[in-house]
Amino acid sequence: MLNRLFGASIKTVQAGSKMDAALLESAEEIKKKGGTPYIIPRGGSNPTGVLGYVNCAMELVGQINDSGLKVDHLVTSTGSAGTQAGLLSGLEGTRSGIPVLGICVGVGKKAQEEKVFAFVQRTNEFLEISGSVN
C-alpha cells in the first residue's frame, strides 16, 4: 500500500525466478530508456545498505548505556548477511564487547560465517576501519 501511495513502480516476476537476474534485467531496461538505476541487492546487503545496521548498533549501545541494561548477547536472524555484518561492525566500532549470535536456516554454519566475515571486512574497509576484525 505504501509503495502505491508514494508512487513506486512495482514489477512482479514469476515465482522461482532468479532475483539477481531480474534486478539486472530491470536495470538494463531503465538504462535503455536513459535512466540511471541503483540496484539494492538482496536484503540490502552491500556496504552502503549495511551502514543502516552499523548505525542501529550504535543507537542500541547508546540506549543500553542510557538505561543501565546489561546485555550479554545480541541475537539476530541472518541470511543475506547484511544485518549481522552491520551489527558486528557497529558493536565492534563502539567497543561494546557485546557478541552477536546470528541464526541462519538457509545455509550451513561455515558458509554463513564466511559470508558474514566477508561483509564485515568490506563494510569496515568502506568505513576506513579495516583490520579491526580478524
What structural category arises from helix and sheet content? mainly alpha
Rounded to an integer in angstroms, the radius of gyration calculated over CA atoms is: 18 Å
Question: Reading side by side through the largest sheet, how are the strands ordered?
Answer: 1-2
User: Quick one: how many beta strands?
Assistant: 2
Characteristics of this structure?
134 residues, mainly alpha, Rossmann fold, 2 domains, two-stranded parallel sheet, 5 helices
Protein architecture, described:
This protein is mainly alpha-helical. The protein folds into two domains: 31 residues, no CATH class; 84 residues, Rossmann fold. The protein is built from five helices and two strands, in the order αααβαβα. Strands 1-2 form a two-stranded parallel sheet. Strand 1, helix 4 and strand 2 form a beta-alpha-beta unit. The longest helix is centred in the middle third of the chain and has 21 residues. The radius of gyration is 18 Å and the shape is elongated. The termini are far apart.
Give a brief rundown of this model:
The protein has 134 residues and is mainly alpha-helical. Helix content is 51%, strand content 6%.
What is the element layout, followed by pairings?
Blueprint (H helix, E strand, L loop, with lengths): L1 H4 L13 H14 L14 H21 L6 E4 L4 H12 L6 E4 L5 H18 L8
Parallel strand pairs: 1-2
